[in-house]
Amino acid sequence: MMDIEVAKVWLQILNMVGTVIIGAWMYLEKRSNKTNERIDDLAGRFEELDKSLRAVKSESGGHLRYTDLDLLRKEQKGDLEKLYLRINTIDTKMSEMIGEARMQNDTLQLIMGCVTKKGLS
Hints:
2 domains; 3 helices; 91% helix
C-alpha cells in the first residue's frame, strides 16, 4: 500500500500534467480561432472583389475590357497606396542600415589600421 506522501507526490504530478495538457489545448484552440478569423476576413474580401467583378462584367455585357479592370484597380488603390508607402518606408530604413553598417566597417578598418601601426612601431 502507498503511504500518504507518495500519494501526494503522484497527485501533484497528475495535476501538473493535466494543467500542461489543458494549457496546450487552450493555446492551440486560440491559435486556431485566430487563423479562422483571418480566413473569414480573406473570404469576405474575396467575395467583395467577386461582386465588383460581376457588377462590372454585367454592365459591360458579359465581357471585361481593360477600362473595366482599371475601375476595379482604382477601387483598391487605397490598399495599394498603403502597401507602396510601407515598401518605401522599409526601403528607406534598409538604406539607412546599410549606410550605418558601412560607416561602422570604415571605423573598424581605421581602428585596425591604428592598432597595427602602433604594433609595428
